[in-house]
Amino acid sequence: MTGPAGIFEIFEQCASGSPGRALARVCGGGPVLTAGALLDHTMTTARDLRRAGLRRGDLAIVAGASGISLIRAILAVWSCDAAAMAADPQIAGPELEELERTFSPRVIIRVNGRGELQTGAAANGDATTALPGSTAVIKLTSGSTGRPRGIAVTGSQLLADTHHLIEAMGIRPDDINIASIPMSHSYGMDSLLMPMVVQGTALLIVPAPLPPLMAEALSIDQPAIFPGVPYLFEMLSRPDGPPVRVRGLKTCLSAGAPLRARTAAAFEERLGLPVRAFYGTSETGGITYDASPEGNAAAVGDGCVGTPLPGVEVTLEGEEGRVVVRGPNVTSGYVGPVEDGDDSGHGEGLFRTGDTGRFDEQGRLHLTGRIAGLINISGRKVNPREIERTLLSVEGVGDAA
C-alpha cells in the first residue's frame, strides 16, 4: 500500500525530470513557480519539519496556508512520510486549538505575516494520534454536532481517486487547472493539487473569487479546466457578470453543493460551454461525473450528477435509494472522537453515503435528497426535494424550499 512518501516520490520524479516546467502562478501577477523551485522549497521545509520532531506516521496540521504555501507544506509533510491535515486558510485561534485538542498532531505549520511557512512542535506533540497505516491525509468534515471529524486517506486511496478523475475528466499534463476553490478542502485537493503532483498539470491560482480575476483566469488562451462551485457559476452566468473571452477554456465542472438546472443553462447560454456535474464526498473522493459529449446533465434537471467514474461502483440501497459507493478510492474511516453512528457508513472498500438517489435510463445518477431529510407520511417515505422540484415547475414560482 502506498503511503505519503510514495506520493512524494511520484512528484519528485516528475519535478526532477522537468525542473523548468511551470507548475503554478497566481492570477493577476506574480512569478511563475517551476517544478525545480517547488522541489527545492519543499525540501527546505521538510528539513524544518524534521528538526521540529516530525517523524514517519505522525500528523502535521497546516494552518492558515493557501495556494503555493499550502502545496509546499503538504509536499514537505509527505516527504517525511507523515500525514497532513489542511485546516481552512481562515481558521481562527480557538478553532485551531480545538483541532489540536481533537487530533493531537506532532507539528503545526503556520504562515506568518510575510507569507513564509513556520514550523513548530504542537503543544501536546508527545501524545500524538495513532493513524491507520499509510495515511497521507486527514480530511476534515463536520459532524451533526458541528465538531470537526477527521477522515483518514491512505496514499493508495488518494492516488486511485486522482487517476479516476484524470481519466474521466480528460485532465492532461499540459492543461491548466484554474484554482479558485480551496485546496484545503477535499474537492480542491482531489481535482487541483493531486493532478499537479502526479502528472505536472499546472495551476493558475485565483487568490480571491473576484469578478475581474475570474474573468482574467477564464479568458486564458491555453487549454484549461475550471472546477467551480454553484455560486461562481451563478455569478458568471448573470447578464452583468464579468466579461469572459472563451479561448482555451475547455471544461467547466461544478461540485460541493447542488447546481440548479437553470444556472447551468444560463452559464452555457452566456459562455457557450456546459457546466459538467461532478459528485463526490470527503469519504470517497469522486463518485460520478458527466463525461457525455453534450455535458448537459446538470441542465437536464436539478440533481442529475452524471455516471459513475471509471473504477467506481455505485448502487442504491433500500426503499429510500441510499447511495452506496465501492472502490479503491473509498477511505479508511474516521479518526479522533466519533459521534454515535458516524462510522456506520464505512466498510471494506465501501461507503454508505447520506444521500438518496435514482438512476435514469441513461445510467445517470440523480440525487433526490438526504436520508436525514426524509419525511414518513402514513408509512411512506417522502422526499422534500421531490416536492420542491414539483413546486419549481409551477409557472410563477421563483424558488421553493
Summarize the structure in words.
This protein has 401 residues and is α/β, with parallel strands linked by helices. The protein has helices at 4-17, 35-51, 67-79, 93-103, 155-169, 186-199, 211-218, 230-237, 261-271, 297-300, 384-392, and strands at 22-26, 33-34, 59-63, 83-86, 107-111, 117-121, 135-142, 148-154, 176-179, 202-205, 224-228, 249-254, 275-281, 285-289, 307-308, 313-317, 322-326, 333-335, 346-347, 350-359, 365-370, 375-377, 380-382. The strands form five sheets. It has a nine-stranded mixed beta sheet with strand order 2-1-10-9-11-12-13-14-15. Strands 16, 17, 19, 20 and 21 form a five-stranded antiparallel beta sheet that branches. Strands 4-3-5-6 form a four-stranded mixed beta sheet, sandwiched between helices. Helix 9 (261-271) links the parallel strand 12 and strand 13. Helix 5 crosses helix 6. The longest helix has 17 residues, at 35-51. The chain is globular and about 65 Å long. The chain starts with a helix and ends in a 9-residue tail after the last helix. The relative contact order is 0.10. The mean pLDDT is 91.
